[in-house]
Specification:
Number of helices: 8
Structural class: alpha+beta
Distance between the termini: 20 Å
Bound molecules: pyridoxal-5'-phosphate
Order of helices and strands: EEHEEHHEEHEHEEEEHEHEEEHE
Strand content: 25-35%
Radius of gyration: 19 Å
CATH class of the largest domain: Alpha Beta
CATH topology of the largest domain: D-amino Acid Aminotransferase, Chain A, domain 2
CATH superfamily of the largest domain: D-amino Acid Aminotransferase, subunit A, domain 2
Number of domains: 2
CATH architecture of the largest domain: Alpha-Beta Barrel
Largest sheet: 9 strands, mixed
């Protein structure tokens, strides 16, 4: 059966799921989105994702014409319609159809799209060997510009960094803040381990307030690992004992080399492995999700 896509309340087959070329999400990247996961029949941290979606929309002055509870139901309805228990959900709210000028006032009705699909997870070996990352020349957009604290449809900043990593055959890129502190990956937050403590940059570097990041901080604290949120320099990154990325898609992925410098032993570290193991338990705990069925 063809996958069904939710568009403004209707579930339509993938081949018929279409949006106008005059939608400002397409013409100007004017919109917000979420990437959400479902594990074993539960949508992981659904309301945390919805809170972030509505906060992103608030900043860009986009009024979502649905209550959070209705949006939660729409996500669940889409997963059910596709008989999914383990899935990746892409929830997009665009400014809607307008004219060729960028003025959002021309767009009368936001478009709400929910796509649910099987997840294409990275191969197991990648988690076992860790990834090689490159520090990109592309700096994160400033917090007083198109800050990535807002999960908007503007991802060119990350795409430029990703292109650079691709060009030189690195797995991922690390993006620095406008003043040169470590910020995040292209679609992941970043953590370092130093002397048994976990450190991560604050979101005022322009990083997205990641939900996986929040969960990792909670897991670490519950396991007696001290978590510190502070500015980190590139020098500290190179000399970390361990480094890892976190995100809904990749979950937790060890970083073993950064711009030619080996990180720690050059293998996924002990604390990273503890966090990965505890994260597995955490996502499969029904208390951390909303039931689909
Ligand atoms: C720029 C950016 N940073 C970090 C993340 C990780 O956030 P989360 O853990 O909520 O998926 C994402 C996720 O898509 C992202 O796009």
């Amino acid at each position: 059966m063809e996958p069904l896509v939710y568009i403004n309340g209707e579930l339509v087959p993938k081949s018929e799921a279409k949006i106008s070329v005059f939608d400002h999400g397409f013409l100007y990247g004017d919109g917000v989105f979420e990437g959400i996961r479902a594990y074993n029949g539960y949508v992981f941290k659904l309301y945390e994702h919805l809170d972030r979606l509505y906060a992103s929309a608030h900043t860009i002055m986009l009024t979502i014409p649905m209550k959070k509870e209705e949006m939660a139901e729409a996500v669940i309805k889409t997963l059910r319609a596709n008989s999914l228990r383990n899935a990746y959900v892409r929830l997009v709210v665009t400014r809607g159809e307008g004219d060729l000028g960028l003025d959002p006032r021309k767009c009368k009705k936001p478009n709400i799209i929910i796509i649910a699909g099987e997840l294409s997870v990275l191969p197991k070996e990648v988690y076992e060997r860790g990834v090689r990352a490159l520090i990109s020349w592309v700096r994160r957009d400033r917090i007083d510009a198109t800050s990535h604290e807002v999960k908007s449809l503007n991802y060119l900043n990350s795409i430029l960094a990703k292109l650079e990593a691709n060009n030189v055959n690195f797995d991922e890129a690390i993006i620095l803040s406008s003043d040169g502190y470590v910020c995040e990956g292209t679609a992941e937050n970043i953590f370092i381990v130093k002397k048994g403590e976990l450190l991560t940059p604050p979101t005022y570097t322009g990083a997205l307030p990641g939900i996986t990041r929040q969960v990792v901080m909670e897991i670490a604290t519950n396991n007696g690992i001290k978590v510190i949120e502070r500015l980190l320099t590139v020098h500290e990154l190179f000399n970390a004992d361990e480094v890892f990325f976190t995100g809904t898609g990749v979950e937790i992925i060890p970083v073993v080399e950064i711009s030619g410098r080996k990180i720690g032993s050059g293998k996924p570290g002990e604390i990273t492995n503890i966090i990965i193991e505890e994260f597995r338990k955490y996502v499969s705990d029904p208390r951390n999700g909303t039931p689909i069925y």
